[in-house]
Write a structure and sequence with these properties.
Blueprint lengths: L3 H28 L6 H19 L2 H16 L4 H19 L2 H24 L6 H18 L6 H9 L5 H23 L16 H15 L8 E3 L5 E5 L2 E6 L7 H19 L15 H15 L3 H14 L9 H7 L14 H19 L8 H13 L25 H21 L2 H6 L4 H10 L9 H9 L6 H15 L2
Parallel strand pairs: 1-3
Antiparallel strand pairs: 2-3
Helix pairs in contact: 1-2, 1-3, 3-4, 5-6, 6-7, 8-14, 8-20, 9-10, 9-12, 10-11, 11-16, 14-15, 14-16, 16-20
This protein binds zinc ion.
The site of zinc ion has 4 residues, from α10 and α11.
């Protein structure tokens, strides 16, 4: 007799198949599709989303879940099975609690809002986007009301969607502990009188050489090109189309080296996580990444903790010089390493350095809460944004396009998403510290181009578990301590001491 648990797994895999078809369409849309395909692609995606939601909320699926839960209750010895059921229950409950009409309304509104945001940004007129932001906030409030569990406030629900188990109160605690030390650090760096030679990066970097070097770096870190590929897209991203197919993208500009190179390192980190998930669990929660924060910890670890380290460049700088003989002629390795580690306040989040980056996130975290609790109106966002940025970093955006309109997230309904970036930064430093304790001389390994021990450590402690544990449990098991701000602050202070002598 087939166990009901097996029936559930086969149902889950069917939904995952649909999701992977969605990913295939998504990748094609962003990398390959000609503009003329947009309208038909929207129809394809809408149909697939509807069909998938119907499949997920099918009473037969609910029955399979209840049956499997009963089986498990009779013999709860298998922890993996329990974790799979916990996660399947979470997704199912969320899907059935949301009325189809609200799902559809959100999809329609965000599709229009996205275009309004693109227009508003181009015209530098936030008032063109504000009404859409207002509508999205209303819909997100409705969504939160449907999904709220006991004791959960509106913003808690939104955050929990991206980072299961995370709460507003805990995020406030984290940001509270980060703010003063970061502002202090950035201030000390500014008044140090030292300035890394960033002009060594103001060169021409032939795109073909950038691409070749990016590939070489991804390969060195262990990205498997037999099970992935690197392409170009307007907004860089990583995406899995199924087991054995985890792709990444980047974008190149000839006058900038760091954007594409560290972008490739970042997306490679995401893809290494996907390539490290257990493929025999594919299609179930045990074969999926656990949260956005943990995902971001993987990208940030390879991009920043590894990719901006002296040790990495001890190994990789000769390759960079070979790739860019003109741009790097006469540039010493230390100059280059100092330049890619410069700390300076700026207006754009995605271009921010490691230290100021989290202040950009804190700003968004505060504004999002104010928008959700009604204390800030969408029309007043530009002013609030500019004042907050000035208070934290001492700079004012040169335009609203480069201020409150710079990010795509809100137009897509992703409110409560930003904090996961800072969680990722915290987790990356904490995981790196733990890996260093276990693996010894990581710097020596990097200098020799040995990245396998670190990658295998991450596979062992993070990747292979899928959603077996909650993000908080996973971190605690991997590092021996609950998530904390200290490892990140220690890392940033070390870096400021190295580069600025403060
Ligand atoms: Zn990322």
């Amino acid at each position: 007799m087939t166990r009901r648990f097996d029936q559930l797994v086969s149902d889950l895999r069917e939904v995952s198949l649909m999701a992977s078809i969605q990913s295939t369409l998504e990748w094609d849309e962003q990398v390959m599709m000609p503009p003329g395909g947009a309208s038909h692609r929207a129809d394809q995606k809408a149909w697939l989303a509807r069909t998938m939601h119907a499949r997920q909320t099918n009473p037969a699926f609910g029955e399979a879940l209840v049956g499997a839960e009963q089986e498990h209750a009779a013999d709860p010895s298998n922890g993996e099975e329990g974790a799979l059921l916990r996660q399947a229950r979470r997704s199912y409950d969320r899907a059935v609690k949301l009325p189809g009409s609200l799902v559809e309304e959100l999809a329609r509104t965000t599709a229009h809002a996205h275009h309004a945001w693109v227009d508003a940004r181009k015209a530098n007129e936030p008032s063109r986007f504000a009404p859409w932001l207002g509508r999205i906030i209303d819909l997100k409030k409705q969504q939160a009301a449907c999904l709220a569990g006991p004791g959960q406030g509106t913003y808690d629900v939104l955050v929990d969607e991206f980072e299961p188990g995370e709460t507003t109160a805990h995020l406030r605690e984290i940001f509270g502990a980060l703010r003063a030390p970061l502002v202090d650090l950035v201030g000390r760096v500014a008044s140090s009188g030292r300035r890394p030679p960033v002009e060594v990066l103001a060169k021409q970097w032939p795109v073909a050489a950038q691409e070749a070097l990016g590939r070489e770096a991804a390969k060195a870190l262990g990205y498997d090109f037999e099970r992935g590929r690197l392409d170009v897209s307007v907004h860089p991203f990583s995406i899995s189309l199924g087991p054995g197919d985890s792709r990444i993208t980047t974008r190149y500009t000839a006058d900038r080296f760091e954007g594409a190179f560290f972008g490739v390192m970042h997306e490679t980190g995401h893809a290494l996580y996907e390539q490290g998930l257990p493929s025999d669990r594919w299609g179930t929660p045990l074969g999926e990444a656990v949260s956005l924060g943990v995902h971001e910890s993987q990208s940030r670890l390879w991009e920043n903790l590894v990719g901006r380290s002296r040790a990495f460049w001890r190994y990789f700088y000769p390759k960079a010089v070979a790739a860019f003989p003109e741009a790097l002629a006469g540039v010493r390795e230390e100059q280059f390493v100092a330049a890619v580690n410069a700390i300076a306040p700026s207006e754009i989040r995605v271009e921010a350095d490691e230290a100021t980056y989290n202040l950009h996130i804190l700003l968004r975290f505060e504004i999002e809460q104010a928008l959700m609790d009604g204390s800030l109106r969408p029309d007043d966002v530009p002013q609030a944004w500019n004042d907050a940025l000035h208070a934290m970093l001492g700079v004012r955006p040169s335009s609203d396009a480069r201020g409150c309109l710079q990010d795509v997230h809100w137009s897509g309904g992703a409110i409560g998403y930003f904090p996961t970036y800072t969680l990722g930064n915290l987790f990356s430093a904490q995981l790196f510290e733990a890996a260093k304790r276990d693996l010894g001389d990581l710097d020596g390994q990097f200098e020799r181009g040995e990245f396998t021990p670190l990658r295998e450590w991450l596979r062992q402690h993070v990747h292979r578990h899928g959603q077996r544990y909650t993000p908080q449990e996973l971190l605690t098991r991997a590092t021996g301590a609950a998530p904390s701000v200290e490892p990140l602050l220690a890392h940033l202070r070390r870096k400021a001491a190295e580069v600025y002598g403060v």
